[in-house]
Amino acid sequence: MKLLYFAWVRSRIGMAAEDIAPPDGVNNVTALVEWLRTRGPGYMLAFADLEVVRVAVNQEHADFDAAIKPGDEIAFFPPVTGG
Amino acid sequence: MIKVQEQDFDLQAEVAALIKGKTDIGGVVSFTGLVRDVSEGAKVAAMTLEHYPGMTQKQLAAIEAEACARWPLSASLIIHRYGRLLPGEQIMAVVTASAHRQAAFEAAEFLVDWLKTKAPFWKLESDGAQETWVEARDSDDAAAERWEK
User: Fold this and answer.
1) Does A83 fall in a domain?
2) Global pTM value
């Protein structure tokens, strides 16, 4: 599973991308975030307030209850500010 | 047409290329977004636009397709830059061309409103000393929501 981080989510976690293999049972975005939070203070900080974190699964905007599976590309980022 | 690029663009040349050879167009509307030197009362010395390559192209194409489904457009263009920009520089532009002005005006507004809340770009502003990520505005969400069906 490939994870991508953008904007302040990237700077808080301290990297732009990583390949991970979460434990069995991590089959939706919320479960993935819960697991990521256990991996260190940067993750804790990035995912402290999920109201201001958005997620995309395979380059499409998704909800936190979206299903995920091995091979997916999952991106976390703040609300977008282009235009 | 979607263009995601680091370099600046010449809007007049882009419009000319977009409508070249098409004679069914009665009006062309364009909107250009620029970097302001003040944001929320704070000085802006430079802005860096980050984006999600891959998803950006996909999302902009989907937004453009939605506009084409809603209005009878003869041609359309979304250009969005990324990288480091200075005050006064062009950030993005949308162009819509249609037989009649109303469709072109409405579609242009729709494109800007939707891309502001859906296209994966993030602005990092610098006042010369400190860098701050721009926060999404509720007013942008409200502007996008009025187009929800």
Assistant:
1) no
2) 0.95
